[in-house]
Design brief:
It is globular, with a radius of gyration of 15 Å. By secondary structure, the protein is of the alpha/beta class. Strands 1-4-3-2 form a 4-stranded mixed sheet, covered by helices on one side. The protein has a 4-stranded mixed sheet with strand order 5-8-7-6, with helices on one face.
């Protein structure tokens, strides 16, 4: 096996239209590909893919229950949180500042945790080697 990189993160969502509105219109991720039952969001690197949860099985558990957190790097976490609050996005944890940078956690329509991270690195595109100190709970 020769894995090159993470291709996409797939989220099972209760209402794909609400999730598209959240990730595309509120968060600002561009839609790369879209079909009725599948949407890829993003421009480079790993895609965030939305897929309706099974119509025959109950969608149970939140991100906290099942351990899923999506992390986005942002240029200015303070302005991002202020903008999202104005748009009615639920804040799970307001901004916390640590040595590696600033972090806040929001919730999507399915209660998945979304971590917004503004690194203190000279290269703002660099991802931290781990979110130590930035876990959502």
């Amino acid at each position: 096996m020769n894995i090159k990189k993470v291709g996409n993160v797939i989220l099972a969502v209760k209402d794909i239209d609400k999730s598209i509105q959240f990730y595309h219109e509120l968060i600002g991720l561009p839609i790369k590909n879209q079909r009725r039952s599948w949407v890829d969001l993003g421009t480079s690197g790993a895609m965030l893919s939305l897929h309706p949860a099974s119509l025959t099985a109950q969608h149970v558990g939140s991100s906290i229950d099942n351990g899923i957190t999506i992390g986005f790097l942002v240029g200015d976490v303070q302005s991002a949180v202020e903008e999202l609050k104005e748009k009615g996005v639920r804040i799970h944890r307001d901004i916390v500042e640590r040595e590696a940078g600033k972090n806040a956690v929001i919730l999507d329509p399915d209660d998945y945790l979304i971590s917004l991270f503004e690194p203190n690195f000279a290269d703002k595109e660099q991802q931290t080697g781990g979110y130590h100190g930035f876990t959502p709970s």
